[in-house]
Design goal:
Layout (H helix, E strand, L loop, with lengths): L1 E9 L4 H23 L5 H15 L4 H23 L14 E4 L4 E3 L3 E7 L2 E6 L4 H11 L4 E2 L2 E4 L2 E9 L7 E7 L4 E5 L3 E6 L2 H18 L4 H36 L2 E6 L4 H4 L4 H10 L1 H14 L4 E4 L16 E3 L3 E3 L5 E3 H13 L14 E6 L14
Parallel strand pairs: 9-12, 11-17, 12-13
Antiparallel strand pairs: 1-8, 2-7, 3-4, 4-5, 6-8, 7-8, 9-10, 10-11, 14-15, 15-16
Helix pairs in contact: 1-2, 1-3, 2-3, 5-6, 6-9
Bound molecules: zinc ion.
Length: 390
């Protein structure tokens, strides 16, 4: 199967790139008008119809015409859908943002550089800025294990999709991962228990408080508040993403070392269907567990490890060994009449293993000599120095 990872690179759009982006936007708007006036919805007809006039107006490579037609039709399609739902006005849609999609025939990727074919024998070279994260993709691309697909660029970023063909292995074992707001636990049948201590909760609490303080400032200094809000929301997002990358990396490294497939909870709809208290709700919504799952999934697949999702229903209320109802015992412990006893997170993982049909560890894990490992992800929060005082 093919795994695609979209990797953003920053760049400085010089005058020429800027002009190209503006011209491309004009081309898209031209195609939109053309298609609307003649009620064209098919790509082939629009391409054929528009070409003569397009050629008169612009002297770019023909591929830009294809790309503009494609984007114009996509904009029209979503505009019609919004009209059907009553979400858009009937005035014709206009492309306002500067952005462009280029298929592999229009650009060439050189690792740290991109060459765009503007017209026959005329090229634009763009230097990409990249950090450690992007560099790993470039290295893998140089070795030939990744291919690049259609790139998207706007005035600050170029997004390069890297494609990899992977054969998912037949794993020796399975490891189930329970993600909850304070900790992440993984249990496998061989048996291993892995705890990943992380800072997601601390990050969210810290930024929740920061943002609340900024909102109080809004009444007196709306402009300052808006500026601060933008700054700190962006910073929170980057911290959370960074943390999710670290966590998923540790988990996948562990699974890879022991050749294990990954089982996770199918959390689609969980946030919609359950009415939590207000505080918990806020944390769940800001917490991005789907993002963490998707990071684990693509990192696993890049390492040829299969990933499966199972329904998380009853994973923390039924006994994983006999199926009986569990009773709470103290703070986070659960016990069963059959003698099973372990904490909530381990229990949830064992139930995920059971639902996948993976073998369970021989005995209750607190009796068996499960190999318990703890991974601590360190990071520090240092935002408080710059805050508006209360
Ligand atoms: Zn039991």
């Amino acid at each position: 199967m093919e795994v695609i990872l979209s990797v953003p690179f920053s760049y400085d759009a010089g005058g020429e790139v800027r002009r190209l982006l503006e011209d491309f936007r004009d081309m898209v708007n031209f195609c939109i008008s053309f298609a609307l006036e003649r009620r064209i919805t098919s790509y082939a007809r629009l391409r054929k119809g528009v070409y003569g006039e397009w050629k008169k107006r612009w002297d770019y490579s023909t591929h830009f015409c294809h790309s503009a037609c494609k984007i114009a039709l996509a904009i029209l399609k979503s505009w019609r859908r919004r009209i059907r739902r009553g979400e858009a006005k009937s005035e014709k849609p206009v492309a306002r943002k500067l952005f462009m999609q280029l298929d592999p025939q229009l650009y060439r990727f050189y690792g740290g550089r991109i060459r765009i074919s503007v017209k026959p024998r005329k090229f634009l070279f763009i230097d990409l800025k990249y950090g450690e994260y992007q560099r790993r993709f470039i290295d893998a691309w140089r070795e030939g294990s990744l291919r690049t697909g259609e790139i998207t660029m706007n005035k600050t970023k170029i997004i390069v999709p890297f494609k990899k063909e992977v054969d998912l292995s037949n794993p020796r074992d399975w490891i189930a991962i329970d993600i909850n707001e304070s900790n992440i636990t993984a249990v496998s049948s061989n048996p291993h228990i892995l705890r990943v201590d992380n800072n997601l909760r601390t990050i969210h609490t810290a930024y929740f408080n920061i943002i609340r303080r900024i909102q109080r400032l809004k009444r007196h200094k709306p402009k300052t508040a808006q500026k601060l809000l933008k700054k700190y929301s962006g910073r929170r997002k980057r911290r959370v993403m960074d943390e999710c990358h670290k966590i998923s990396k540790k988990i996948v490294e562990f699974a890879k070392k022991h050749n294990m497939g990954i089982i996770m909870e199918d959390l689609k709809g969980v946030r919609k269907n359950i009415h939590y208290g207000r505080m918990l709700n806020r944390r769940l919504h800001s917490w991005n567990f789907r993002k963490l799952q998707s990071y684990i999934e693509y990192k696993a697949k890049l390492n040829s490890l299969p990933v499966e999702y199972v329904n998380p229903k009853n994973t923390s209320s039924l006994c994983p060994t006999c199926g009986g109802r569990l009773a709470p015992k103290g703070h986070r412990l659960l016990k069963c009449r059959c003698g099973y006893e372990d904490d909530r997170d381990v229990t949830a993982c064992l139930n995920l293993l059971r639902m996948r049909g993976a073998p369970l560890p021989p005995k209750a894990l607190n009796e068996a000599k499960a190999e318990r490992e703890r991974i601590v992800i360190k990071s520090q929060l240092s935002d408080n120095g710059y805050l508006p005082s209360r």
